[in-house]
Task: inverse folding
């Protein structure tokens, strides 16, 4: 089977189409932004719990929850008219010249 690839713009379009069909809102006045942010947090927490319990594949698995989180982020970005591809590319370029002080951070670094 041929694997198709999609840009974030393509995925956002699909997600917005489904959001309209399912009644999740597609305009800023149709959503509650803090609630959508909380739902993104919720999916990230579900991903953490799945990973913690070594449930990587399948329903409610780590992979699925990561996908849920990204879908919710793309839905929020699409509803607010944020070009998330542009934002990400801009940040990657910004981070290229950025340095982190690993001595001050309690974070794994290789
Ligand atoms: Mg989920």
Result:
């Amino acid at each position: 089977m041929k694997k198709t690839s999609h840009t974030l713009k393509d995925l956002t379009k699909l997600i917005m189409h489904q959001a309209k069909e399912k009644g999740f809102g597609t305009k800023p006045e149709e959503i509650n932004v803090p609630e959508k942010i909380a739902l993104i947090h919720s999916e990230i927490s579900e991903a953490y719990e799945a990973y913690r319990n070594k449930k990587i594949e399948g329903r409610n698995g780590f992979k699925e929850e990561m996908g849920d989180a990204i879908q919710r982020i793309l839905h929020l970005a699409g509803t607010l008219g944020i070009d998330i591809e542009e934002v990400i590319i801009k940040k990657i370029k910004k981070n290229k010249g950025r340095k982190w002080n690993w001595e001050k951070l309690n974070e794994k670094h290789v």
About this structure: The pocket of magnesium ion is lined by residues 43, 46, 65, 68 (CB under 6 Å).
